[in-house]
Amino acid sequence: MPVHHRFDDNQVDEIPRELVELGRHLDRVPAVYRRELTETYQQVVDSVRRRRRILNLVQEALAQLRLDIKYLMFDLEMTRQERDELKAILDEMQ
To answer: How far is it, in rounded angstroms, from Cα 34 to Cα 25?
Structure first.
């Protein structure tokens, strides 16, 4: 009986090792039970992948937010410096 793997090698990195191992164990379960278990297993795998994608999106959004905050802090500091310089110039004129 040929052994087919539930995942490509590049997909294995997307899901936890324990889940991959469970999938390999399911390949050895008798066919009568495998069908029912495989549906539930696939739902879990899909959920894990979806959560991984969401986590990646959140991490990217946080990284962008951090960068935006750095730019805003720089702009604020420059604005304060310009204000102080202009105040000093106005005080000298008076």
So the answer is: 10
CB 26 within 8 A of CB 3: no
Domain holding 41, by residue range, is: 9-93
Cα radius of gyration (the chain): 28
Give the number of domains in the chain.
1
Instruction: Tell me 41's DSSP state.
Output: H
Residue 2 belongs to some domain of the structure: no
Instruction: Report if residue 25 sits inside a domain.
Output: yes
**Residue 3: φ, ψ to 5°:** -95, 120
pTM above 0.70, yes or no: no
In sign, the C-alpha dihedral spanning 72, 78, 83, 84 is positive
| Residue 1 belongs to some domain of the structure | no
Convert the pLDDT of each residue in 56-70 to its tens digit: 999 999 999 999 999
